[in-house]
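A protein record pairs a chain with a discrete description of its three-dimensional fold. The following entry can be read in just this way:
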Amino acid sequence: MKKALLIVVIILAVLLALPVINLLRWTFQTKKPIGLILVDKTVPRVDREKHKSFYWIMTNNRYVKKEKKTSYSYVKDYYGFHPTRPLKEKQYNNVRYNMTEALRELPESKDAVYFTDTYGVLVSDWYFALNPPRRSRKLEGALNGMDNNLIKEMKDRNKLILIEYNAFDWPTGEFESYTLQNRLGIKWSGWTGKYFASLDTTSKNFPLWMTAMYRKQYKKPWTFNKPGVILLKDKAILVMEEGTLLTKPMPVIVTDSACCEKWDLAKTVTFDQWFDIIDPLENTVISKFKLATTPFADSLLAENGISGEFPAVVMDPVAKRTFYFSGDFCHTNIPYWTSRFMGVDKMKVLLYSAKKEDDLRRFFWLYYKPLIEGIFGDYYTEIKAKK
């Protein structure tokens, strides 16, 4: 009895000691000073879901501000839409850089820029709407001329550039979208899409404006209720439901074997957020989206100038310092306090299911986290070697 009690005490002591040990390991880990510019114009809530996971990775890997050598704050350290408390008063600040900062100061002093989301915050996002429209007046949003100038200046100085989905689509204007596509060497098809766990209109938060688009285009009622993917372009809509157009409903990201080995990325991982369909032109394709399409779906997509396989991550082939993510990759509401524990990703059994390929938590831990760590790890090594 005493022996069993002693074993229990030892196990409890180890379990209690591990978090403290890992916190100390993180605290005394070598700091990595780096100048970051993060732009997130889509922050309708205080949780900052559109960029929190990125700063989690930066904090966990001990990247710190150059000046103060302190960790970046996901609450304060970004340009874009900033909700202010108390939330019930619906007050906010739009934090932007000026022309001097965009053309000279930031490109000279900073090492990397990451546009996590430029879609913005609409009136219907900020003020409750029972049935929000597809588009309403924006309080903040769109990739604008100042953003394009910053990207150009950073690129001219061979700095690290990461840009995510929706930089090309509305509310970004046609000229700015065209300019950015040329600058990145990418051609956007005009199509965007998203997976839905249920196409039933009674599902929570299902965008009803899509059903109105469908009825207007096809002159028949919306009868879908299974999982599937919806593709959109201007006023056109394609509904790809499981069983008719898809053999499996969830988009899958498949990564090149060399990159899997280099950055320890999962070969395949499911994805449920918004994405766009691009032509990479001369860019290097690191990962691809794949839809499990039926032969009829392939024909339907071909009629619209697209296919069920398209780039997910592309990199410029020369300097290898400009990346475009064709999906809403940074959208993960991860508990931020865990970022200050070294080795937290080793607790796989608690973080995600290793056996269930459709477990959406796998995307962050097996793909996005090692992708960001790989890109920034390589870049930090290069800039450190030049000093």
In short: The radius of gyration is 22 Å. The chain has two domains: 27-185+316-387, 190-309. The mean pLDDT is 91. Residues 2-27 form the longest helix (26 residues).
